[in-house]
Give the backbone structure.
Amino acid sequence: MAFRRGFKTEAEQITQEVRADLGLSLRDRLDPLHLADELDIPVWPLSALPSAVPHLDAIADSVTYLSLTDQTALSAVTVFSGAARVIVHNDAHAPARQTSNLSHELAHALLLHLPTPALDRRGCRQWNADVEDEANWLGGALLIPGPAAWWAASRRLSLDQIAGHFGCSLEMARWRLNVTGARRLLTG
């Protein structure tokens, strides 16, 4: 995970600007659906696709597979039509996971990442690790900004309390405490 020079600082600046635009402090819980609405990006739950496209039986079969059989196969995806984008997210995931999934996709939008085909000509998934790493980092920063991680750690909040306060998963709370260095306050 080698970021371009200055990226982490840029991500924190974007986070501060986004939160200010939404009227949120760095310690407030960010609702990714509210952010998507402010960015004029429609968000569709995966479970809504069969009724949105009722004439395609394959859609219902795919949604069943992604919702029940293999939930790990799809978290969220941004679908483009020209410059317009729609986020489709797997609403079979736990709410805290959905928050992370949506924040990741919104981070792509905030970073102005260009659309790319999901699959190559052989049908294999294409993956730009640098772009995905940037979206992971900013998505996490949107949910728990660096200063908020330090604030939570300085108050000796548990991971459960931090996750509950910010509406994210335990994994996200742990990761943000680790990558911001705030975890040192809990172990020192």
